[in-house]
Amino acid sequence: MVDLNEMVPSMLQGSLTDFIKGEELLTNAAQSLLEDEMKKHIRRVLDENPEIKRELKKAMEDYLEARMKQLAAQVKIMGLTAKLGVLMIPDHVRKEFSEEMLSLFEKDLATILEKAL
Questions:
Q1: Residues 58, 52: contact at Cβ < 8 Å?
Q2: Are 5 and 13 in contact (CB under 8 A)?
Q3: Which of 91, 93, 103, 107 has the fewest CB atoms within 10 Å, i.e. is most exposed?
Q4: Upper half-sphere CA count for residue 28 (Cβ side, 13 Å)
Q5: CA distances (Å), 93 to each of 33, 80, 87, 106, in order?
Q6: Tens-of-pLDDT digits for all 117 residues of the chain?
């Protein structure tokens, strides 16, 4: 009978997942190096073309501002949807529900403000 340890080289005896993880690590490292080189090249080209650099910066600022407006609108929609939901609750349950929701929002808002400030 043939001994498996003799047939399979020691470096291949580890689990397949260990082998794949090592390969993923090398792939990710190579990808990171490639990204770094691409960033350097982009910065060099932008430094050589200040007008494009200014326009790109402005476009990015416009994009971020639009995203912030989108987020603000989403928060507003969520608030209005919550109000609509409360209005749909029968009157005898609404007061208790509203107080409970207010309590939850106060706690969450306090936590958010503490983290933000």
A1: no
A2: yes
A3: 91
A4: 6
A5: 60, 19, 11, 20
A6: 556 555 555 555 566 566 667 788 888 889 999 999 999 999 999 999 999 999 999 999 999 999 999 999 999 999 899 889 888 888 888 888 878 878 887 877 788 878 877
d(CA 116, CA 71): 16
Give the Å distances, CA to CA, from 103 to 14, 15, 81, 96, 106. Answer: 55, 52, 18, 11, 5
pTM, two decimals, is: 0.52
User: In sequence order, which residues have a C-beta less than 8 Å from that of residue 86 and are 6 or more positions away?
Assistant: 94, 97, 98, 101
Amino acid at 87: L
Contacts of 108 (CB under 8 A, 6+ apart): none
Would you state the structure tokens that stand for residue 71, as one six-digit string? 């987020």
